[in-house]
Structure formats: structure tokens, C-alpha cells
Amino acid sequence: MSEMKLSFKKSKIGRRCTMLPHNELNAKYPMDGGYLRGQPARLPEMAEVDVVRHYTALSKRAYGVDDGFYPLGSCTMKYNPKVNEKAASLPGLTDIHPLQPEETVQGCLQVLYETQQMLNEVSGMDSTSLQPAAGAHGEWAGLQLIRAYHLDRGDDKRTKVIIPDSAHGTNPASAAMCGYEIVNVKSGEDGCVDLDALRTVMDGTVAALMLTNPNTLGKFEKGICEISEIVHNEGGLLYYDGANLNAVMGVTRPGDMGFDVVHWNLHKTLSAPHGGGGPGSGPVGCKKLLSAYLPVPVITKDDDGYHMEYDRPKSIGRVKSFYGNFLVALKAYSYLLMLGGDGLKAASVNAVLNANYMLHSLKDYSDVTYDSPCMHEFVIGLESFKKRTGVSAMDVAKSMIDKGFHPPTMYFPLIVPEALMFEPTETESRETLDASLAAIKEILTQAETDPEALHATPATTPVGRPDEVSAARNPILKYEFPE
Ligand SMILES: *Cc1c(COP(=O)(O)O)cnc(C)c1O
Q1: DSSP conformation class of 479
Q2: CB-ligand 1 contact for 172 (6 Å cutoff)
Q3: CA–CA distances in Å: residue 272 to residues 55, 76, 108, 335
Q4: C-beta 147 within 6 A of ligand 1
Q5: What's residue 75's pLDDT?
Q6: CA of 174 to the centre of ligand 1 (A)
Q7: pTM exceeds 0.85, yes or no
Q8: Going by C-beta distance under 8 Å and a sequence separation of 6 or more, which residues neighbour residue 344?
Q9: Residues with Cβ within 8 Å of residue 410, at least 6 apart in sequence
Q10: pLDDT digit string, tens, across residues 297-309
């Protein structure tokens, strides 16, 4: 694939698209000169047809879940049924204004209310707020609930949050933003929380333990009831990172495992496309003991209809403008109604089945072992494989691009050297899984005979292996004109 010219390089002075009539108002109502540029902006000058072709060509170089297999572990890049997009684009739901009076947006409030109720039911919580805009934002809001709860009881000695070493990076970041000191707890040999290690760090200065279950290795924390007891006995609370609920929906509930707070990623588990950074939605749910602290407004229902309740004196306040990301909640609502309880359970069961199907095929290459089935995702560790062949997890992932598949998550979780994490999700067919497994095995076999070729992949993309350090440290984010 050849390199594409930037639109700036295609620019020809004077070339134009459709022209609007001259604006007479500028002369009648001149703008304050201080707000005007001295010189016209230096934008690419192109004909409409060339602009259209430019962006169409760019769009064809993108790879998304609508193009093919996308096994990004922990992130649930699953196929999002189009009916949900359709629902979220109905004019009655999009042509409204957030400042409209309550009585004119009853339908929208009903959507929000019923989504709250359904999330309560699936997670085993008592109340849920749809305000937070993303997973990390939900974590932060959830930890604020925990903070408010302890302080409200006059318990101001709790300055720490315990987080396992396999956690998603947003967990320690959110806890730090809430002013907590982070205490790391090591995973045991089996990749689960080491209960003895937890006992040594758990005391009356700990506000909460944050946990993902199944954890990021795709393993179910079998000791969860004991973990809950250890934390609760010392007066701490249990936070559930529910960004990825793909393994447990309709099967088990964080609330039943002893968790007090949970955040969701509607954009992961409940079908909202989230490539390119959003928009997301990270509802936070909690047990009764924390309900009073939820962000406002809380959507309530009585005989007169649906309301936005602001009068909640113990609330942590507002965390997002208006209602949160309404259209993302709407897609989740549509998805929940489409699947129903049985459908949600089937989605989880199929997600777990698909992950195990892949794991079975790849486990002989992996340093990480599974003595029981994995959940919705699994991790293979290629450290030994790399020592023998010189081919790294990065080489394998990049080679997948040449075979027409999106790479899995690389080098996460951090506790596994040369990690590749796969999450096929529930919607992939056996044929797709077989095709991707055949490609991966071809790569792993080639590593034995021709490792050099794999270091140079991908060969089919306009850019092969960018220098990732410079790309992160010295990003070039705007066009520099050659003067
Ligand atoms: C994605 C993810 C998050 C963060 O969610 P964002 O919406 O990206 O902020 C947190 N925890 C886990 C386990 C995740 O997979």
C-alpha cells in the first residue's frame, strides 16, 4: 500500500468546493477586529470531488470491527448490532434539547430510568447513576461515593485503596485522583489475589479494595467471598471494576459476590462503538448504604411521571453536564431490550465458550497456564517462546495484520512478560475463530524457521513499525508548512 499525500500537499491555490453566497451581514454588523485573523487560515484548497476521494481513501485504510476479527482483550471491541444505532438516531430522541422542561422529555427520562433499573438488576446493585462519561470517570465517581460514606460516618482514617497488581491502569489512577494512597497486592501463582497478602495489608486505614472479576487474566477469583469478608471485617468497601462484564451478565452478579460499588462501561459491554475515544458511558451503581451519595440528578419515577431529582443533600454533586451521554445509554437500553435476560446470559456464555475455544488451541505456546476454563478472555505469555525463537509477542501481533486480522492486546496485564491477550467476544462464528487461529499458528510455525521475516511485519500497511517511543514523546500533531 503506497503512502498517501496529505491534503495540504494536494492543495492548489484557488481550487474550491461549493461556494456560499457572500455574507452581507458582515458589512452591516462588523465584528470587533480583535477577534478577526489578520490573514486567512492556511487551509488546503481542493475541489469537492478530491476532498471526497481523499477521505474515502483514508476510511478504506482503517480497520474496525465491521471489517473483520478484532480480538482486543479487556476492551470488548464487540460487534454492535445496527438496530441499536438505528434506535439512537430516531429524530424524537435526537432532536431534543437538554434544557427542555421535564414534562416534554418524559420518553427520554423513561429510557434513562429503565436503563438504571436494568443495570441494577444485572449487577445486583440497589441504585445506579448514568452520569459518568467513561469507565475511568465511573471509577472516580464510585470512589467518591466510598469516600463520602466513610467521612459521613466520621471515619476519616481511611487513606488507602488496595489494588491487585493485575488491575487495569485506570484503577490506581482514579484512586490517586481521589487522594488515596495506593497499596498494591500481589497475585498468587494462579494469577488470582493472594489472600494472605491481602490479609497483611488490610486494616482500618483502608477505604476500599478495587477488583475486576473475572480478573484481567480472564480468571474468576474463586476466593471472592473470602476476599469480601476480609475487606468488610475491617470496615472497608468492595469496588467492582465492571468495565467488562462480558463473562458474567445473567450468570452471576457483583452484588451477590459482596461488592458495594460497580461501574459499567456501556461502550464495552452494552454495544456502543467506541473506537477513536468515545463517546462513552460509565454508569456507577451501588448498594443501599451508598445510594444517598450518588451524583445528581437521579432519575426517579412517581405517579406524575419521571423526574430529575436534584434535592439530595448528601450527593457528591454533579459529575457531568445534563444527563450524561444520553445516546450511549440509549444504545445500551436498546441492546438490553433486544437481548432480554436470556439473551444477555447467552451472550456471556458464548463469549466464554469462544474464548475457551481459542485458548485450547493456543495454550501449548503459553507460559501462563489455566487449570480451569478461562472466562471471556485469556492471556498467553510468550517469554519462553521468544527465548527460543527470538520472536516476540509484538512480532506475532504485527504479523497478524498482514494476515488480515486486528492484533490482540499486547503487553497487558503487566504481570505477564510477552503477553498477548485475546477476547474473541460472543458474536464471532466458529469459521472466523478457525481462520484467525490458522493465521496465528502459521505465524508461530514460521517463527521456528524464518524469524527475521516476522521482525519486519507488517509489510502490507502504509506504515510498518513506527518508532513508538518517539511517536509518544514527540507526536507531530499539525502540519508544518515548508516556509
Ligand atoms: C476499559 C477499562 C477501563 C477504563 O474504561 P474507559 O472507558 O476507557 O475509561 C477500566 N477497567 C477495565 C478493566 C477496562 O477494561
Answers
A1: P
A2: no
A3: 24, 10, 18, 9
A4: no
A5: 82
A6: 11
A7: yes
A8: 122, 249, 250, 336
A9: 393, 394, 397, 419, 420, 421
A10: 999 999 999 999 9
